[in-house]
Amino acid sequence: MGMYGELRERGFDLVSDTSVADWASRRQSGDLHRVDFQVPAGFEKYCRILHRVHGPSDGGLSDSFLPWSDYAQSVGLAIRPDTRWYEISRRDLRLRSISPDVGGLDKISGPAYLEFIVERLPAEAPIFAGYWDGIQPQHEPGTSFPTARLGVRDYVLFRVSLAALLDAFRSESGFLFDFPALLWPENKSWYLSTEVDYNSTLVGGSEEFIDALLAHEPIEALPIGPDIDLTYRAAP
Q1: Cβ distance 128 to 20 under 8 Å?
Q2: E strand residue ranges, the chain
Q3: Rounded to whole angstroms, what are the CA distances from 34 to 13, 62, 83, 217, 230?
């Protein structure tokens, strides 16, 4: 069974009317170098979730997913909201063979984020989930998927209950498809976005929501301004 079939079996309904995303596209800043191009402008506060670093541990016998702070501390670097991974890895040659997950929340941070929002929304709350049309293996012969343009990419959108979304991405479920690139609730109170080339995820929401997310373990997150440039153009 392909990805689309798996999604349908797990309660994901394809969104045919992609105007449900118009509110987000209208609020994008228009400057692709800003945080509020990936996450709509107008939220009270924003943060950046650092994807955990995927590399060997225990002498290379098993995989680890460790926070950036573990490695930054080992090389004597204080992490800023706009720190790039290479600023850490270039200080230790041994770190150049490992990297954070790119393009989606990792298998620790993703379920942790969903557990976080379970505390703030009822289980039946509708959530919109988006997958970049250019990378996810969801197409089926003879099937056309409507897409929404958000930022510089086209996304296939699904509507799913919070309970079904949580069940699909529990770390113990063994479900193998990637975490959605976009998430937002029907009430538009927060918005999560992972650009396919980014090793971190951006979230906008109320001050209370973001402050609580910053304190939620095991997520490693930092507050960030909507005007910050995380692209290579601004790399130190």
Answers
A1: yes
A2: 13-14, 45-50, 53-57, 62-66, 99-100, 126-132, 147-150, 153-161, 182-185, 191-193, 200-205, 221-223
A3: 31, 37, 15, 27, 7
Buried/exposed 200-227: b ≥16 CB within 10 Å, e otherwise: bbbbbbeeebbeebbebeebbbbebebe
In the chain, which ranges are continuous DSSP H helix? 3-9, 22-26, 35-38, 68-74, 85-89, 109-118, 162-168, 207-214
The pTM of this model reads 0.92
Residue boundaries of the structural domains of the chain:
3-52+101-234, 54-100
Q: Answer left, alpha or beta for residue 73, where phi above 0 means left and psi between -120 and 50 means alpha.
A: alpha
* The one-letter amino acid at 29: S
Alpha-carbon gap, residue 92 to 89, rounded angstroms: 6
Measured between alpha carbons, how far is 133 from 155 in angstroms, rounded to an integer?
Answer: 5
The answer to whether 176 and 112 are in contact (CB under 8 A) is no
Ordered mean pLDDT values, 10 residues apiece, the chain (236 residues): 78 95 95 93 98 69 77 93 92 88 89 95 96 69 81 93 90 65 97 93 98 97 94 63
